[in-house]
Amino acid sequence: MRILANDGIDPIGKQILEAAGFEVDTVHIPQEELAARLNSYDAVTVRSATKLRQELIDLCPNIKVIGRGGVGMDNIDVDYARSKGIAVVNTPAASSHSVAELVFAHLLNGVRFLYDSNRQMPVSGATKFGALKKAYGAGSELQGKTLGVVGFGRIGRETAKIGLGLGMNVIYSDLFEGPMSLTLNLSGDIQVEVPVKQAEIETVLRESDFISLHVPFTDKPVIGKEEFEILKDGVGLVNASRGGVIDELALVDALNTGKVAFAGLDVYDDEPTPRAEILTHPKISLTPHIGAATNEAQERIGEELATLLIENLKK
């Protein structure tokens, strides 16, 4: 049986699949060529780049399993695929901690102005050192501040845990009733139960000093023009979930007025060509959709995805 890992798979995952007797092809097939070539495989794995919509699924009756390496499956018509008897699996827990750490890379970057000082020091560090020191010398700490987490799934909870470990207060919103506390696993096998507070999303937006978004894309932004108006002045925002969750043009306006102190973005409306207003803004910390892209996460994703494929292909 043949498996196409169209957006790649960790070598450990490939090794597991090959040891189980499967042929694994990791050569990327462009989206426009999949309709002609995908049907020669028994299963396909994707990340966020490849899209498996109803029209493509109909053209590939040989596909028995679709695997998504990661959490969100909005690039797959999941219900339709399952209605055709195709198993659709993903690895929701494998990359959660990696994404959460990136959120805090952006937050720490933001409160100490690293997003801008890293641009300015190579240009003016040797001639305007004192001026730059003064410009970036009014940073703040995360400890004692309120972190608002919008969406309290696996990634949202991992983000909250890091915030709690830094001494932040955590308030969150979710569509479902969530926990009143989280367990922190500290070094030395020490576990600590720390309280968190669930509230309506409007309360989270109003009361948070920093906000991290962990929700899927819907038909409208979670934070748009109206929502920006109720945020605290000087709030910091991070989006490592999906492009479109924040209204990007409204964000630029809020950054320009000082309503938002800084933003950290890992995802964009127009990937892979984000708009210039975002890429060039001096108050935005930027990464190219790398939330799950750590060596550790990729190994976990590869192992879990391989196990799920084997289970479903050998039924």
TrEMBL record:
Transmembrane segments: none annotated. InterPro entries: D-iso_2-hydroxyacid_DH_PdxB, D-isomer_2_OHA_DH_cat_dom, D-isomer_DH_NAD-bd, NAD(P)-bd_dom_sf. The keyword NAD applies. It comes from the Bacteria. Residues 7-310 form the D-isomer specific 2-hydroxyacid dehydrogenase catalytic domain. Keywords: NAD, Oxidoreductase. Coiled coil: none annotated. SUPFAM superfamilies: Formate/glycerate dehydrogenase catalytic domain-like (SSF52283), NAD(P)-binding Rossmann-fold domains (SSF51735). Residues 105-291 form the D-isomer specific 2-hydroxyacid dehydrogenase NAD-binding domain. Belongs to the D-isomer specific 2-hydroxyacid dehydrogenase family. This is D-2-hydroxyacid dehydrogenase.
